[in-house]
Amino acid sequence: MLTDDALAFVREYHLATLSTVGRSGRIHAVPVGFTYENGVVRVIGSRGTQKFVNAARSGRASICSVDGARWISFEGPARVTDEGDAVAHAVDLYAARYRQPRVNPDRVVLELTVERVLGSVAFRR
């Protein structure tokens, strides 16, 4: 699904903006760290935060990461889970890309199954 250049980009240290739809229909956009693996984008965080509440309610999300003229955007169905193996895997991926996150007993993971990818010319097939 991603070109070699796009895969390299999503392994580099870049933050992104996660966009979800709030109850009122307004867009809720927040900065996040994210990982990409085999067509799934993951974001870790605390249970009950607005981004996870919105994603769980609407079942959709979008992530966009920018570095100068290079950018990539993912959109698709999203689910939020606190299942132990899924959270542990997401933490491992996050630690490999960014740093080991602090211990968080309320941690959940948003898993976005990529339906659509937009991005810089070098990132397109």
In percent, how helical is the residue content?
A: 10-25%
Low-confidence runs of at least 5 consecutive residues: none
Inertia-based shape? globular
Structural class: alpha+beta
Report the sheet with the most strands, covering strand number, pairing sense and barrel closure: 8 strands, antiparallel
Give average pLDDT, whole number.
96
What's the SSE pattern?
HEEEEHEEHEE
From the structure provided, what is the oligomeric state, counting identical versus distinct chains?
A: single chain
Beta-strand percent range: 35-45%
Task: Give an overview of the whole structure.
- The protein contains 3 helices and 8 strands; from the N terminus they run H-E-E-E-E-H-E-E-H-E-E.
- Strands 1, 2, 3, 4, 5, 6, 7 and 8 form an 8-stranded antiparallel β-sheet that branches.
- The protein is of the alpha+beta class and 125 residues long.
- The chain has helices spanning 4-9, 50-58, 84-97, and strands at 16-21, 27-32, 35-37, 40-46, 60-67, 70-81, 107-113, 116-119.
